[in-house]
């Protein structure tokens, strides 16, 4: 019998409470939601989550504003755990010290998204099982360790500089990382906080701050097949139909099952792309929301969902904003949403007018949830030209294309020596007048926190990532870039990490067809001295 089975959870209307709720249930705790201030003061253990964007959550109109005085009180009452909010200098103002944005001019990508190991101090207790294992961070602001706050610090981490990754004062613990998104090691942190009696008191494991690990992401392209079942499919250069007489949509498994399997096999993140989302409106496509709900109950790494995120007016004339769509996805367990087609239109508009309207789905969701919650998924295709001046986009000289040219010809079909990467919308069906380079820079300005860089030419070919494209984009923006499309062997992962500045690499087909286990990819990366979460 556990000493403590009831956890009090404060949901103040911002932050990803869904994930923490799922993690607590998974650990076997019952949850009591705060309804009155008395619930807080009577709690044995209280948890509240942080927010991606502090200001809108806590300004006068924000959901958390009324709670500010109360939160200050409970900190003094010594029973709290949280991330992010606690660390903000204009937040609760309890801990002395300075909080500011990471300095991207120091050569780091901001937001800090990904996995690091911690330098754990003495008496952290809740971090006793962490050792040198990686935990998941996603934030743009950090608290700096100093003499003023040294008594609060229980661990630090390194990302361009040392920053505070957790604090402890009495029974008060706060962590900057996300335990509910850090796999089994993160769950151990929650367990230690909630039930300090239960874990066997082993000697705390020592850890050393590591550099940012490269993430290996499993992607599930999801759509309804001709029988009406929601399936994971996989295309060749975006064509997801079998080359048989029936011409059926390829069916590689069930989304929730595969996501659970990849989590157990060590995927650092899972992405769901609703690939016909441009046709269907997500809020009408409830199965996708169900997929997220069920997956997030048992999968404790970040989940991204994309497809069809845009403003929409239905047949009855009812208008839905993209914010409503995103909110529903976040409520259902998504940590990040991914925007494809709508980001292309927004970037085109921005480049044409030079004005940020603030009205695009990208800008709105980024403003409310923080840019770390918004991925832009790019679907470019290589287009050959004779001369760099033939198009007003960034053009590559084709002999520079890597010799491993992934089965593609070094020159164009008519001997063209130059090429640009044309962005597409509607799952590659329509080419647009904008290049991947121009798009990447524009969406970074509009508020994207990460770029998922697909490549239609390489998709499903198993011949390696388009390292020229990945290099071009990862060198031109200061936000993390996920290399995608073309992975066929573990060596393709080390190649993309060694030759480009990609932060992560994503694959689909090789995992679905069980050709290469995620673990083999990671073991290979370790052999190559590339930092990964094992
Ligand atoms: O435009 O906002 O509705 O979003 C639609 C989303 O669906 C976009 O993210 C777009 O990339 C995706 N999508 C649309 N059509 C397809 C298709 O395949 N027909 N899938 C599609 C994109 C590419 C990757 C794939 C990698 C790795 N799939 O996600 O998983 O290429 O594959 P591999 O390792 O097997 O080579 P919107």
Written overview of the protein:
This protein is of the alpha/beta class and 534 residues long. It has 15 helices and 27 strands. The protein folds into 2 domains: 6-194, Class I glutamine amidotransferase (GATase) domain (Rossmann fold, 3-Layer(aba) Sandwich), CATH 3.40.50; 215-279 and 300-320 and 333-378 and 423-527, Aldolase class I (TIM Barrel, Alpha-Beta Barrel). Helices cover 26% and strands 23% of the residues. The strands form 7 sheets. It has an 8-stranded parallel barrel, surrounded by 9 helices. β23 and β24 form a beta hairpin. It starts with 5 loop residues before the first strand and ends in a 7-residue tail after the last helix. It binds ligand 1PR. Ligand 1PR binds at residues 219, 221, 234-235, 238, 240, 273, 275, 277-278, 306-309, 338-342, 377, 379, 427-428, 454, 459-460, 484-487, 507-509.
Number of domains: 2
Distinct compounds present: ligand 1PR
| Shape descriptor | globular
Q: Under the CATH scheme, which class of the largest domain?
A: Alpha Beta
Radius of gyration: 23 Å
Weakly predicted, low-confidence segments: 73-89
Structural class: alpha/beta
CATH topology of the largest domain: TIM Barrel
As laid out across the biggest beta sheet, the strand order is 13-15-16-19-20-25-26-27
Look at the structure and name the CATH superfamily of the largest domain: Aldolase class I
Q: What is the beta-strand fraction?
A: 15-25%
Distance between the termini: 32 Å
Calculate the mean pLDDT score and round it.
87
**How many beta strands in the DSSP annotation?**
27
- What is the count of helical runs? 15
């Amino acid at each position: 019998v556990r000493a403590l089975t009831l956890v009090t959870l404060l949901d103040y209307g911002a932050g990803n409470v869904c994930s923490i709720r799922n993690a607590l249930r998974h650990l076997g705790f019952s949850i009591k939601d705060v309804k009155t201030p008395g619930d807080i003061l009577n709690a044995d253990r209280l948890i509240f989550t942080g927010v991606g964007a502090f200001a809108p959550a806590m300004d006068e109109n924000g959901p958390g504003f009324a709670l500010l005085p109360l939160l200050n009180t409970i900190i003094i009452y010594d029973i709290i755990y949280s991330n992010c909010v606690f660390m903000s200098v204009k937040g609760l103002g309890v801990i002395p010290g300075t909080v500011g944005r990471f300095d991207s001019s120091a050569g780091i990508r901001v937001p800090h998204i990904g996995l690091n190991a911690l330098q754990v101090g003495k008496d952290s207790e809740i971090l006793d099982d962490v050792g040198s294992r990686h935990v998941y961070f996603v934030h743009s602001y950090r608290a700096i360790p100093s003499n003023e706050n040294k008594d609060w610090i229980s661990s630090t981490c390194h990302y361009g500089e040392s920053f505070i990754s957790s604090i402890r004062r009495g029974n008060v613990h706060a962590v900057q990382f996300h335990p509910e998104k850090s796999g089994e090691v993160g769950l151990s942190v929650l367990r230690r906080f909630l039930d300090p009696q239960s874990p066997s008191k082993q000697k705390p494991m020592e850890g050393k701050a590591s550099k940012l690990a490269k993430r290996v992401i499993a992607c599930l392209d999801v759509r309804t097949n001709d029988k009406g079942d929601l399936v994971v499919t996989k295309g060749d250069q975006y064509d997801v139909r079998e080359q048989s007489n029936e011409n059926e949509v390829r069916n590689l498994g069930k989304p929730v099952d595969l996501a659970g399997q990849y989590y157990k096999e060590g995927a650092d993140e899972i992405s769901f792309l609703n690939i016909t989302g441009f046709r269907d409106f997500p809020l009408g496509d409830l199965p996708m929301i169900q997929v997220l709900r069920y997956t997030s109950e048992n999968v404790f790494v970040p989940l991204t969902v994309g497809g069809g995120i845009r403003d929409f007016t239905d047949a009855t004339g009812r208008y839905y904003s993209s914010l409503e769509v995103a909110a529903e996805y976040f409520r259902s367990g998504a940590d990040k949403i991914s925007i494809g087609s709508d980001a292309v239109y927004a970037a085109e508009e921005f480049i044409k007018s030079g004005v940020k309207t603030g009205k695009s789905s990208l800008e709105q969701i980024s403003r409310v949830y923080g840019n770390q919650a918004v991925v832009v998924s790019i679907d470019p295709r290589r287009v050959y030209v004779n001369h760099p001046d033939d198009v007003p986009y960034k053009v590559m000289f084709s002999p520079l294309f890597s010799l491993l040219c992934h089965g593609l010809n070094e020159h164009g079909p008519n001997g063209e020596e130059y090429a640009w990467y044309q962005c597409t919308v509607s799952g590659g069906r329509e080419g647009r007048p904008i290049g991947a380079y121009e798009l990447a820079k524009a969406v970074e300005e509009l508020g994207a926190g990460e770029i998922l860089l697909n490549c239609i030419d390489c998709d499903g070919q198993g011949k390696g990532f388009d390292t020229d494209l990945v290099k071009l984009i990862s060198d031109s923006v200061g936000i993390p870039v996920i290399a995608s499309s073309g992975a066929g062997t573990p060596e393709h992962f080390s190649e993309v990490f060694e030759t480009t500045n990609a932060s992560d690499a994503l694959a689909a087909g090789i995992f679905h067809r069980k050709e290469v286990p995620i673990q083999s990819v990671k073991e290979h990366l370790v052999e190559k001295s590339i930092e990964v979460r094992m």
